[in-house]
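Contributing new records

If you add data, match the layout below exactly. Sequence lines come first and carry their own label; structure lines follow with theirs. Keep one chain per record. Anything else will be rejected by the validation script.
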Amino acid sequence: MKDLLRLRTSLTEEIERVLNEQIKMEAEASSMYLAMSAWCDRNGFDFSAGYFKKQSDEEREHMLRLFKYVSDMGGRAVSPDISGIQIEFDSFRSVFEQALQQEIAVTQSFNRMADKCMKSKDFVTFTFLQWFLKEQIEEEYVARRALELFDVIGEEGTGQYEIDKRVPKITYEDTYED
């Protein structure tokens, strides 16, 4: 029976497994960003709360894009079980430090998946992953620039207020060819 199910998909068991792991990672990222949004909201950082809510929505969209791909390819997409999401943070800055760490981890995960696809000659999935790899350039850039505001502006006086106001205004100019 297992062999018959494998005939329904061109995805290898390993590629399907790592795609489902990434679905879970994206769901966790969405939940983490939502928790960051709530923390910022509770602590009076309204602009950052909105920024993290938007990030949460984007990560959920990434999860759904991966989920649809696995299903479209005849694989078994797994709706992830998410628990243990951190809801308290040490400081305003620590929220942004964790956001950057999370984006770097996501980039590394996509790089590992792309490597597995190349090694298994799954060029269809490798091509599908290109959108995510390109997206991670922007995700890391924005997270890094947001964190850099703490060093540039400083947190003293009205510094945190100024940082909060500027976070949603950070944009990434994509100068790469499509």
